[in-house]
Amino acid sequence: MYITIIIVYTLALTIVFLYSLSQLNLLFGYLKSKKTTTNEGPQFDLSKPDETPCVTIQLPVFNELYVMERLLDNIALLDYPSEKLEVQVLDDSTDESIVTTANKVKQLQEKGLDIKHIHRTNRQGFKAGALKEGLKEASGEFVAIFDADFLPEPDWLKKTIPHFKNPKIGVVQTRWGHINRDYSLLTKIQALSLDYHFTMEQSGRNFKKHFINFNGTAGIWRKTCIVDAGNWQGDTLTEDLDLSYRAQLNQWEFKYLEDVVTPAELPMIVSASRSQQFRWNKGAAENFKKTYKRVLKCDKTPWKTKMHSFFHLLNSSMFILILTMAILSVPVLYIKNEHPVLNLYFNISSVFALSSVIFFVNYWVSYKNIHGGGFKNFSQYVGLFLTYFSVAMGFSLHNSIAVLEGHFGKKSEFIRTPKFNMNKISDKWRGNKYINKNISKHTILEALLMCYFAFALYSGVQIGDYGLFGFHLMLFSGFGFVFFKSVTDKL
Prior knowledge:
Elements: H1 2-35, E1 55-61, H2 68-75, E2 85-91, H3 97-110, E3 115-119, H4 126-137, E4 142-145, H5 156-160, E5 169-178, H6 185-207, E6 219-222, H7 223-228, H8 239-249, E7 253-264, H9 270-297, H10 303-313, H11 318-338, H12 343-349, H13 354-371, H14 375-394, H15 396-407, H16 441-463, H17 469-488
Helix pairs in contact: 1-6, 1-11, 1-13, 2-3, 6-13, 6-14, 8-9, 9-10, 9-15, 11-15, 11-16, 13-14, 14-17, 16-17
């Protein structure tokens, strides 16, 4: 029995290590991109009317009572020729926000903005269905998309549209910013994670010409690219990742603009973060199942891009491996103590600790790029990184279930992430009508895992083996944080 445990444990360690090496490769690409003067290519001169293309802005929304006015007021500030700009509010709402949104749209129409309120009576295809429906009426050659919590700067279009003069570019994606980064510990660690994706991963892949993804919002598509790639499809929960891969397999190029930041609101409570992570992680697994065979068979896709695509699409599946390693680490602790003959194996397997070192360095480069270096920032980063990794492991059960559902083809609805429209710590969120008041059944299992890793800490002390003590402490803290916040946020 213990041999089986060792084999499974080692396999999980090995795959995570290989994944970390792929991230290290992205680090090298990212650092090289910072030292390389790239040719931006041809750009539209927007001072010339004949070079200024028509743009449609799509705002897919569903029951966004608290943020619609803020969103629409912000979109109205975009600096672009009015005769070449239209706005579509793709509203699938089923509550009173339909009326308030319609009234706000009417006000903006009276001020001269070309804006339409398109309300569907069903949610067929969810967000993908709304985008596809709006595309039928879109007059713009290019289509910018913003979720309800995003607030683009007035010059956003002037910074993105010019890159489309290159006819090969199908998408321009910008980096997400965070208007409520410092609201709570939860928002701080989410910001750390997203900043890493939008600096290291997106920039590293784009510089190396590997496949990247449109992030569902804060980006702009060439309309012909959407159509050529097969249009929006609602058979996965991450329609953005799906269309991105289909477009790049059709040889469209993506342009990522790290220096163009589009502010947005981070989920402020654990239940909101749960719904977002469940959708992202399950959708990634669904897309691996749907797309990766086509990636492998594509003769025009370099093998390095195929390798990075493998880890890109299986990114969320790492949670299954983390959860497996975590659970098996307790019996492994006893096996190590009771079978001295395996000491050589455990000494060799310690090399896999390099995975943690790689992640630590990668995240620091990302953090430093945004916040700056220095001892003070590094000290803050160390605490934030350890907290982030602990909480990420605390979400591993929840996210693993999402991934397994994706791989095994279990269908579920597109669950929106509640928005709050709050920026200050003093702002209150408990009156938000969209918060799910039910405690997830996963929460009970997370409480049991918290107790399990408390036992792991006790076992390490009793045996006198502290090799996994730090790992078990992070697991205990992570599951404890997720459990207690999941409960207290409902009170």
